[in-house]
Amino acid sequence: MSDTTEPAGAANPAPVVTYDIRQILNALPHRYPLLLVDRVKSLEIGERIHAVKAVSFNEQFFQGHFPGRPIMPGVLQIEALAQAAAILAIETLELAGSGKLVYFMAIEEAKFRAPVEPGVLLDLEVGFVQKRAGDATQPRGWTNSQSEAMRRASFSGRSEPALAKDQSDEGRYPSRLPHDQGADDRRHRV
Predict the structure, then answer these.
(1) Residues designated catalytic
(2) Please, what CATH class does the domain formed by 4-164 belong to?
(3) I need a surface site. Which of 33, 81, 132, 190 has the fewest CB within 10 A?
(4) b/e per residue, 15-48, with b = 16+ CB within 10 A?
(5) Is the pTM of the predicted complex or chain greater than 0.85?
């Protein structure tokens, strides 16, 4: 269950909410192994979120990235930030139960300062730079870890209706892209 507290010293403070894993699963469509938010430490609806990802040696990506020196891929760090931003957007735009998904649309200014290794508690902090009319948002996120690595990124998202569970992607995506035609022939030449 979530706890609600109010920040001290604010005139009309927005309630600060926390989420456990059950509430995160209700808010996001992501599931293991791509659910990258473990807990929401604080959520100020319409303003900011502070979430946490506990980076464990048991993560699947460590099997191949890299054997002997496990490092969390940067794209997954960005995805973790985007998931935290999605929770913020879902709550701010009141999209819970609406059948809409929040999509990650763009990223700019991503910087990685140090590797994130097993055992790190990755803090995911996101605040809005701009909230536009409709369903578009432009949050700015940053992460901190126990290794004092810091990453920053500006990204944008948009909400759109999700596919109904009975809708199939069959026929929507070609099995071969046009530029792949003849790729098998090229690969087997000596």
Answers:
(1) 65
(2) alpha beta
(3) 190
(4) ebbbbeeebbeebbebeeeebbbbbbebbbbeeb
(5) no
